[in-house]
Amino acid sequence: MNKEKPWTNIVENLSTVETEVYLDKYPVTEGHLLFVPTRATEKGIIFALRLALETGNDILAEGKCDGFNIGLNMGKAAGQTVGWPHVHLIPRHEGDIEDPTGGVRGVIPEKQKY
Question: The pTM is what?
């Protein structure tokens, strides 16, 4: 695993000692954030997932989105392009796509609808 973290656009008010939060360089939606554990360990990844979930719930409660997706790409076959674990928080809004049924199942488009 590459130990270099390529992100530079940190969101200071959301970052913690255990997890740094960045704006995604290629956002899927407005407010797309990356939660990057400061240590690439299972404990670090779990902490980042927990912070992403808490942040998603906060922005949902504040009315800044209508829902959210959380994703983690681990390995080239899963689409990972940066060699450091990181969790995506993607805010969603009613009508941002025609039919959101299936959510993250859309990583394989023909499997999304069921």
Answer: 0.91
